[in-house]
User: What shape does this take?
Amino acid sequence: MPRLQGKVALITGGGTGIGRATAIVFAREGARVAIADIDAGAGEETARLAGNGAIAIRSDVTEPDSIQRAIRTAVDTFGRLDVLHNNAGGSTAQDNTAVEVPLDEFWRAIKLDLFGTFLGCRFGIPELVKAGGGSVINMSSNVALMGVPGRDCYTAAKGGIAAMTPSLAVAYAPQRVRVNAIAPSATMTERVKRLVAGNTALTKLADSHLLGLIEPDDIAQMALYLASDESRMVTGQVLPVDSGVTIS
Assistant: This one.
């Protein structure tokens, strides 16, 4: 039987990259998938590729009303919510040390990565509780687990997600809601390829992967495990998918 048969999942930032790969894997494993993305066209393309009745919802995770509407649309369409994948986020080439980075870049990273995840949990967890429990999958990063110079804005945002994840796991365990985070290293989406090409520190990081470079589907497979009942006893964890970079 497909591993997510009967489950409903909402994936933020599902229009491209890791989110698109995850939506396709989830749908293939039987889930009904709602793809929330600020780029409506990209979300619709992911829904087409995923199939199995997947829907696309234009949503800005930094706006409370927008992400609340996306979650409501998913529940109204499919009847429930079992999996919330807070995937939307990302860094930019403007990131730098705290001394040198433009202040606007700090607030951009905090608002998109950390606040967007916070809002997803704020409005999504109550729907998981109504469904009798479920899985929240946040996206942290290896930069929250090791020292990577010149990424202080992204590190602060992803470190906040890593800290918030076990806190929520403890709070909602009585309602059978599991909360975990994935901490990828540089994953070869089109956006990351452009970032790595222009950043010496990130190029060095990519070159230090023990098992080779990470592809979006590698992260999607971890998300699949966390979404499935196979991980029913896993909560509060920040799980690296990093080709060994945090130990090298």
In short: The chain has eight helices and seven strands. The two ends are 38 Å apart (CA to CA). The CA atoms of residues 8 and 78 lie 7 Å apart. Residues 103-130 form the longest helix (28 residues).
